[in-house]
């Protein structure tokens, strides 16, 4: 895609996902350069910049947002800081790619949407990378084909152990919690396939203090489809990533639906026939960064816009409430 110069991206935060979500994709996506970084701990930013060849380190987030050599920011800070950082970036005229979860609660997401709506020339995109991988369209194609018959149920699971208790997912004040972290994927997967849940049938959290380490829920979607989710950052289910959709004539299963580059397979059983389709292992993060670049250059609305993310966070908050937990806090 033609451009006078690459889009210059500054990083805010040094989350563990950043090397695979931005640094590695930027080496393969034309028209994007990572040029600066800032973190609430400057020494951590300097170390990250040294490891990954980032040429400039700003002393503070504010300094990075004032940097005229930065066109866009990738926010990889704790979830509780996202509202403040995204709104500050938008007001500074910087395009934003914000790590999931978009914010730590629905009120914060609605405030980000309000600020973003006032700056229509600024791209605000949530880094929910699975949405940009072709696998998601393949899943929708199978469901629309009718080969499974009438869809009756779906189950989405994502469990990944977060071993260090010093990590952000274990700190409620930073937006911690298994549902907001690992559970973000299965909740969004079911919403994207079946629309907004009509009701939450039940929800249960296994918690350590105020942080849910495992979360399970059943929701009712349109056409009487019952969808269940399981998320975990520490439980008997240490590592699992799976989507199952059942109809009255067959079933679809997908391994690694949220990170297809890990070796996803789509299996359809219908009419007595089993078909297995290996999925292209090109990284979902590459597709995502290409979409961010293209949204900036063309003005196209990203699949994971601020408006789309508000509904996701509203569902997360409702699930927490049903399980007897409060929404996660926001902080400046």
How large is the count of helical segments?
9
Shape: globular
Order of helices and strands: EHEHEHEHEHEHEHEEEEEEEHH
**Overall helicity:** 25-40%
Strand tally is 14
CATH class value of the largest domain:
Alpha Beta
Main sheet makeup? 8 strands, mixed
CATH architecture of the largest domain: 2-Layer Sandwich
In CATH, what is the homologous superfamily of the largest domain?
Dihydrodipicolinate Reductase, domain 2
Q: Give the count of structural domains.
A: 2
How far apart are the first and last residues' alpha carbons, in Å?
37 Å
Strand content: 25-35%
Structure description:
The structure is a single chain. The chain is an alpha/beta fold and 332 residues long. It has two domains: 7-130 and 285-303, Rossmann fold (3-Layer(aba) Sandwich); 134-281, Dihydrodipicolinate Reductase, domain 2 (2-Layer Sandwich). Helix content is 31%, strand content 28%. It has nine helices and 14 strands. The protein has helices spanning 18-26, 42-52, 61-65, 82-91, 106-117, 134-145, 184-194, 284-298, 306-322; strands at 7-12, 32-38, 56-57, 72-75, 95-99, 124-127, 151-159, 199-208, 211-221, 225-232, 240-247, 250-255, 265-270, 273-278. The strands form two sheets. An eight-stranded mixed β-sheet has the order 8-9-10-7-11-12-13-14, covered by helices on one side. A hairpin with a 2-residue loop joins strand 11 and strand 12 (250-255). The longest helix has 17 residues, at 306-322. The two termini are 37 Å apart.
């Amino acid at each position: 895609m033609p451009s006078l110069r690459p889009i210059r991206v500054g990083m805010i935060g040094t989350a563990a996902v950043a090397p695979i979500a931005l640094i590695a994709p930027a080496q393969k996506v034309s028209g994007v350069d990572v040029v600066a970084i800032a973190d609430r701990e400057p020494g951590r930013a300097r170390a990250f910049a040294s490891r990954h060849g980032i040429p400039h380190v700003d002393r503070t987030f504010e300094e990075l947002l004032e940097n005229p050599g930065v066109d866009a920011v990738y926010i990889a800070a704790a979830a509780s800081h996202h509202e403040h950082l995204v709104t500050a970036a938008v007001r500074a005229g910087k395009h934003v790619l914000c790590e999931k979860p978009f914010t730590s609660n629905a009120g914060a997401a609605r405030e980000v949407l309000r600020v973003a709506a006032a700056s229509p020339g600024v791209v605000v995109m949530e880094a929910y990378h699975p949405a940009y991988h072709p696998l998601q369209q393949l899943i929708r194609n199978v469901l629309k084909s009718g080969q499974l018959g009438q869809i009756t149920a779906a189950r989405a699971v994502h469990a990944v152990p977060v071993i260090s208790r010093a990590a952000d997912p274990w700190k409620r004040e930073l937006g911690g919690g298994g549902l907001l972290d690992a559970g973000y994927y299965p909740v969004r997967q079911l919403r994207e396939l079946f629309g907004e849940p009509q009701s939450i049938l039940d929800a249960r959290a296994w918690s350590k203090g105020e942080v849910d380490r495992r979360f399970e829920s059943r929701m009712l979607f349109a056409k009487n489809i019952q969808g269940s989710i399981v998320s975990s950052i520490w439980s008997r289910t240490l590592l699992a990533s799976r989507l199952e959709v059942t109809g009255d004539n067959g079933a679809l299963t997908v391994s690694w639906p949220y990170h297809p580059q890990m070796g996803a397979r789509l299996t359809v059983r219908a009419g007595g026939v089993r078909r297995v389709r290996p999925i292209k292992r090109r990284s979902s993060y590459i597709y995502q960064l290409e979409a961010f670049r293209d949204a900036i250059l063309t003005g196209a609305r990203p699949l994971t816009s601020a408006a789309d993310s508000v509904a996701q966070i509203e569902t997360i908050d409702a699930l927490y409430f049903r399980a007897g937990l409060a929404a996660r806090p926001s902080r400046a």
